[in-house]
Amino acid sequence: MGSKNVPPVDCLIGPTASGKSSLALWLANCCRGHELGQVVEIVSMDSALIYKAMDIGTAKPTRAERAQTPHHLIDILEPEQVFSVAQFLDHARAAIHAIRGRGNRPLVVGGTMLYFKALWQGLDDLPSAPLALRQDIANQAKVKGWPAMHAELLGRDPATAQRLSPNDAQRISRALEVFLHTGQSLSSWIRQSQDKKQALAPIPLRVLALQPGDRAWLHARIAKRFTAMLEQGFLQEVRDLRRRPDLLPTHPSMRSVGYRQAWAHLAGEQSEQAFIDSGIAASRQLAKRQITWLRSFHGLYRLDPSCLSLTELEQKALQWWRADPVQTEH
């Protein structure tokens, strides 16, 4: 995959509700036509689509869409299971290799930026930590607050702490986990992992990023999609999930945006209107984080779907698709 003779893999990314999936399916349909004559297979880059029984709240492609265009890394785990970034990288590499082996064209599509970063920049070979340790850190944070945990990290791993916000719960927790489990700082592990980097090397990508500039446009699409999910039976989907004896609200699948809020509502922790408001707000926050990630990456071909008609967007995406396989900044 890392050979200079291997063309880069096409990748379509963007924030939630920006139109990634529909544009990917449109490109795949174009390629089935006589003009391009290619078969496209989509590799999902979404940390929620990997789970079975989570269809409505993830806006999962329909069975008809998947029958028309092959999809990979969808419905591969039960909601009780955990899936790491390293596992995603392994699965994605295998899928891309198999697709190319069939003479078809892979298209990676999604908005999980940690997954994208692993593909785009490679993955550090870092140690895992026991789930009990992670929970202990979370319990401490509930009492002390994340700024206090950040201060603790500053004393143990100043190099990592200095680049993190005092409220960056996920990364503060990760850095403390590594230190408490191994006795070495996360920054030290990262330095040591450089020698092993080739085994977890980045995959050459050619990236089209949907990056909406009009926040109101994206917010309206998020609200519309959330309302549609409710009409399609999202709450019943979560009721069914809550009946699974081994599934807990602390599982990563149930921490997904929308599912976390629905679980709390069905547990009697908030009213239906509060659930709807918090679900939409959480989706907006997710989109904001995704756009922040996008702004930090270089070498992407960027299109703003909020200021283009659908036809204009599709035609510009098709021009990118047909272009020489080189990374292009736009």
CATH class of the largest domain: Alpha Beta
* Overall pLDDT: 90
The separation of the N and C termini measures 25 Å
Query: Biggest sheet: strands, sense, closure?
Result: 6 strands, parallel
What are the low-pLDDT stretches, counting only 5+ consecutive residues below 50?
326-330
| Helix/sheet category | alpha/beta
Q: Overall 3D geometry? A: globular
Q: In what range is the share of β-strand residues? A: 5-15%
Structure, explained:
This protein is α/β, with parallel strands linked by helices and 330 residues long. The protein has two domains: 9-122 and 201-322, P-loop containing nucleotide triphosphate hydrolases (Rossmann fold, 3-Layer(aba) Sandwich); 131-198, Histone, subunit A. It has 14 helices and six strands. Strand 2 (40-44), helix 2 and strand 3 form a beta-alpha-beta unit. Helix 3 crosses helix 4 and helix 6 crosses helix 8. It is globular. The protein starts with 8 loop residues before the first strand and ends in an 8-residue tail after the last helix.
